[in-house]
From TrEMBL:
<dbReference type="Pfam" id="PF02585">
    <property type="entry name" value="PIG-L"/>
</dbReference>
<feature type="region of interest" description="Disordered">
    <location>
        <begin position="230"/>
        <end position="249"/>
    </location>
</feature>
<protein>
    <submittedName>
        <fullName>PIG-L family deacetylase</fullName>
    </submittedName>
</protein>
<dbReference type="InterPro" id="IPR024078">
    <property type="entry name" value="LmbE-like_dom_sf"/>
</dbReference>
<dbReference type="InterPro" id="IPR003737">
    <property type="entry name" value="GlcNAc_PI_deacetylase-related"/>
</dbReference>
Length: 249
């Protein structure tokens, strides 16, 4: 059974990469002008870092060139949705060593303190190491900030939400951790034309997608809200152990 919700706050939305927020949540961002999108893995690689295969396919000669171009695409896309980008300097896993979930959580905690009036929207972490890391960091902060403040929602990651069994397995893990996850109904579908224009701003990415992947961009966005069940233990801020939501991955 789902719950209906009307978001009355601007959003603080966490995006693993420079496109995930718009691809996964473009309708919601468009419906909440003044929102802030924090991209975790938006760091610019050092000069001389070779372009991995995906970047070479997009026509980039180096990793640095790719990220700088995608930052500009992100800026353009979010401007179409009246949202503001914030780029953290953690590197995409394909460009270098990944941070720990604790390091990411610490940076996010500083931002949360600055945007206390914002509803918070974070990834479910259905697949991909950067998405899983982003989810772990966000989940470790959920209990501290969501109980008495604006709502927190978990969004289904675009493209990965199509993977067979991925969502079912995730919901089962949440249940086993003592969390009640309820789907949230939001009246945002009328924003689809604006989302489509914003998605098209990521030209270096869109040009590489097959028809099935492109089709997912127009699929309904889906969000979940967490509650602790009566028998569920409160998640801990630190430790990121298997007994907490931060250990979902």
């Amino acid at each position: 059974m789902s719950m209906s919700m009307s978001i009355q706050h601007p959003l603080l939305l966490v995006s693993p990469h420079l496109d995930d927020a718009v691809f996964s949540c473009g309708n919601l961002i468009a419906a909440c002008p003044g929102s802030v999108v924090v991209t975790l893995f938006a760091g610019v690689p050092r000069h001389g870092t070779p372009a991995p295969q995906w970047d070479r396919r997009a026509g980039f000669a180096s990793a640095r060139e790719a990220v700088e171009a995608r930052r500009e695409e992100d800026r353009a896309a979010l401007s179409l949705l009246n949202a503001e980008p914030v780029w953290l300097d953690f590197l995409d896993h394909q460009y270098g060593n990944s941070p720990t979930a604790g390091q990411v959580a610490a940076r996010l905690e500083t931002l949360l303190a600055n945007y206390r009036s914002c509803a918070v929207v974070v990834p479910c972490g259905l697949y991909h190491s950067d998405h899983l890391l982003a989810h772990r960091a966000c989940a470790s902060l959920w209990a501290q900030y969501a109980e008495d403040g604006p709502p927190w929602l978990f969004y289904e990651d675009a493209f990965y939400r199509r993977s067979s069994g991925a969502l079912h397995a995730l919901l089962l893990r949440w249940h086993m951790l003592g969390l009640k996850a309820t789907p949230v109904d939001l009246a945002i579908s009328e924003q689809m034309p604006r989302k489509a224009r914003a998605c098209n701003a990521y030209g270096s990415q869109i040009s590489l997608f097959d028809s099935a992947t492109l089709g997912d961009l127009s699929a309904p966005e889906r969000y979940w809200r967490w509650e602790k069940t009566p028998s569920g233990a409160a998640p801990r801020r630190a430790g990121l152990s298997a007994e907490t939501p931060a250990g979902l991955v």
